[in-house]
């Protein structure tokens, strides 16, 4: 993991998941709003998608857990060797992946066995995030200032994501909380890339000066720009999905849609006041 | 920004916005209470006001973002110059303004496109405040004790405002939370002025002794007095707005109002128990 | 304030208020439960009690604010004298009292003017507590370990009281939250006494060794014992009030009460499941 | 308590209680789901179980409180001896046990006297946990790094348990919060064992090197593995209890159960969307 690639891989993973979740949440919300006029998205479809999502999560987590153990120079499942702990950093990463695997398993179980409480995956997901934040918090003992700072920001964003997911668990079906979570996941993804660029510049340039206060001042706003970027991505996503659903709706049931949309729009604005 | 004027301008901005929000919240609340007897404030009016508010926010944020870049001695959009970061403090301020601009944009979008969730601007506003608190928190690396202390208090009030705004996002239409937020925004505004007076006395007097513990002891209660002042402003505001609405109501529909008010008053007290 | 009496007076004040609030909450709760059978407590009475409570708070706060200024050796309203701040500790205390006075004023206003939101006094009370916690937090710059520790515990209990009061503001009419707040207020009261005994032993004995770790270890559990004591006081209170209300009820309407109580009891247990 | 046994005993206690609570919560939830078709678990039975639970808690707490005082070398109720505090560590433990005893007493009172609010035991339990966390937080003044770290993790898990229990108090009857609490209690139990193994190895081996950073890195993930274990225990528990209830149900009312289950399942999935 102590390499550019080691940060780019989980970064890409989180970015893709964040993008996918923002699309799913928007789609669900828009379909629900439109459903009064025309049935587009069916519950069964969303169920199957959730199970697929769980399978993907399990697959990714398994790859991660096993990969961290068996890469050349990895611990190869040996925890204690020659009187000292054996490559604990890799064990840390394996543990994080394992908890995300648990989320995938719960996802699959919850959407196949109907007697399980439906908000269990949310709880497990917030647990996995809290565990990730906890491990990263204890990950950088004895490193240098810049290294600690970028990881602290990572802990901050992971902790906040866990908090938002826990809120989602308590208050179900709030689309804005879901999008907020997606934006934080996107931020985590791009921030992993940023850490890679800062600590292990891929161009072969020397790493940033770890004791320079200006670097910290810059990374502070850089973090905010990443966040702004994730907002813009989600906004464009939302516009695109809404436009796609509406255009598809018009093709399928052109006459009613036009009529009913006005009625609906008024009801909406009524509710929202 | 490192000047009296640099603190007075955002201070004035926040003070004016806080005042305006406290008026708006009170007006909305009083109109809602009176509406049972007489229709005064219309929904359409409030919608138009929100859009105007968004436009003002965007305008202010744009002025701020651009101003911080192009004032004489500003970074002029150059981030990295001659092997080091270029005036990061101004970039910090630009970033903060940018997020407030995003709030304005969301405000306009949400009240023109009815399919967007109505509580989105609240979420964006709490985000902008959290980002502001985060940036100010990392803003004072390596400064002196007094400077750090007054900025820490600023971070405290901004963070609390963000928290209250997030609560507003979750629990909509609670007038007291709205007034609490307004009072915290007022506090932020007057505190910016106080920082200006402490660090860059406009009278030309020397700055306060940055290592004197007594200055910190005084600024602690000074902060509380600012808060008390913001309460008093909001209280007077409330009294004034209520009196205006009621007097205008009496002129418009004198007979029913008198009769119905008693009925209503009893219902109110019933509900409030 | 730097004396035994200076800690005993606010201690007694908070203890009495805590006791009174626990009685009021219990009485309200028991009356509400019994009301289905027999009307004992009337709303009007509770209103008048609230106004009286507000008046008492204003009176106490006024005494405190003025007393801190005009005691022999007090600042006598002079904030800045001979090139330095004038007795800021007394100004700190005056500020705290002033905020509790504001609570009293809001109490009176809210229960005389019916158009004001009914939960305003709760919000003001939680604000007054947060301000008190904030001031005490910045109160002990440059003192000794034991002094700081006992004041930190004070800050902890005040902050928690503020938090519970804020929860009461959001979730109205939860009797257990009210009793929890009363217990924390009682704890604050007895802890003020404890601080007086630790820092200014009234018997004339020398103050406790401020650098002894064992003193801190003891005060940790002592704090918990105070808390346990406040629980026991509230429990006894509850038993007494319930017994009084029930016995008075039996005298007034003996036949129905007996009959209806069984019905009611079943309904209760139904609800509580 | 400064021994392996002193950590194993409370560890076992918490483990057993966590296991029992997870069984009870699952049983209650499954019975409630099945009740629409067949009445299995009765309210009266659950009431009696709660009272028994309270009695067990009181018994355990009494044993603990008294045991800590009268073990050979204990303080024997003497708080101050020969000019210094007498074995405060044991007094700390006694205080913790006492608060858990209070929970037991409230449990018994609440389920025998029906006029008491039903969520009182939850509040008392969260209070007991917060007190425990507070005492452990102030328990390790002046010890070594590893000792402090393992106790900090203990404080973390106890504080989180208190927080979850407080949430349960506010949001009643959320099965997932109950299971989350059980899992945290299980974690606390196994972590007590872990502390025993780290600080007082029972095999007679030397204690772990208290200044080795690698030990802290390992204990970080070890803590997460304990947590994962508690999840697995609760999952297996859930599967077992569900299977038992369903199989018993089939034996009792075979015909209707089959028919109704399908109907019910659809309703469930409807609700859960």
Put the structure in a nutshell.
The structure is a homotetramer of 273-residue chains. Chain A contains 8 helices and 2 strands, in the order H-H-E-E-H-H-H-H-H-H.
Topology at a glance:
The structure is a homotetramer of 273-residue chains.
Chain A: H1 4-34, H2 43-70, E1 80-81, E2 84-85, H3 88-112, H4 120-137, H5 145-170, H6 175-199, H7 213-252, H8 254-272
Antiparallel strand pairs in A: 1-2
Protein name (chains A, B, C, D): Transmembrane protein 45A isoform 2
Transmembrane segments (chains A, B, C, D): 12-30, 91-113, 149-171, 183-201, 216-241
Family (chains A, B, C, D): Belongs to the TMEM45 family.
Question: Describe it for me?
Answer:
4 copies of one chain form a homotetramer. By secondary structure, chain A is mainly α. Chain A has helices at 4-34, 43-70, 88-112, 120-137, 145-170, 175-199, 213-252, 254-272; strands spanning 80-81, 84-85. In chain A, a hairpin with a 2-residue loop joins strand 1 and strand 2 (84-85). The longest helix of chain A has 40 residues, at 213-252. Chains in contact: A-B, A-D, B-C, C-D. Chains A and B meet through helix 1, helix 6, helix 7 and helix 8 of A and strand 2, helix 3 and helix 4 of B.
């Amino acid at each position: 993991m102590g390499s550019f690639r080691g940060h780019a891989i989980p970064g890409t993973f989180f970015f893709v998941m964040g993008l996918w979740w923002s699309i799913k949440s928007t789609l669900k919300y828009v379909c629900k709003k439109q459903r009064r006029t025309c049935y587009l998205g069916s519950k069964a479809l969303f169920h199957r998608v959730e199970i697929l999502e769980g399978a993907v999560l399990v697959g990714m987590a398994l790859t991660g857990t096993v990969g961290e153990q068996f890469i050349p120079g990895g611990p190869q499942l040996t925890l204690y060797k020659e009187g000292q702990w054996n490559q604990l950093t890799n064990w840390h990463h394996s543990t994080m992946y394992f908890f995300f695997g648990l989320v995938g398993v719960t996802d699959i179980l919850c959407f196949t066995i109907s007697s399980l409480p439906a908000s269990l995956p949310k709880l497990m997901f917030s647990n996995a995030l809290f565990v990730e934040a906890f491990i990263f918090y204890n990950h950088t003992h004895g490193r240098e200032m810049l290294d600690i700072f970028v990881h602290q920001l990572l802990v901050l964003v992971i902790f906040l994501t866990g908090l938002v997911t826990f809120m989602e668990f308590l208050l179900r079906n709030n689309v804005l909380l879901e999008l907020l979570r997606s934006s934080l996941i996107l931020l985590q993804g791009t921030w992993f890339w940023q850490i890679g660029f800062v600590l292990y510049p891929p161009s072969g340039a020397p790493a940033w000066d770890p004791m320079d206060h200006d670097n910290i001042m810059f990374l502070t706003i850089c973090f905010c720009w990443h966040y702004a970027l994730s907002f813009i991505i989600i906004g464009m996503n939302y516009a695109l999905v809404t436009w796609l659903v509406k255009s598809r709706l018009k093709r399928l049931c052109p006459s009613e849609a036009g009529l009913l949309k006005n009625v609906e729009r008024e009801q909406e604005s009524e509710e929202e006041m």
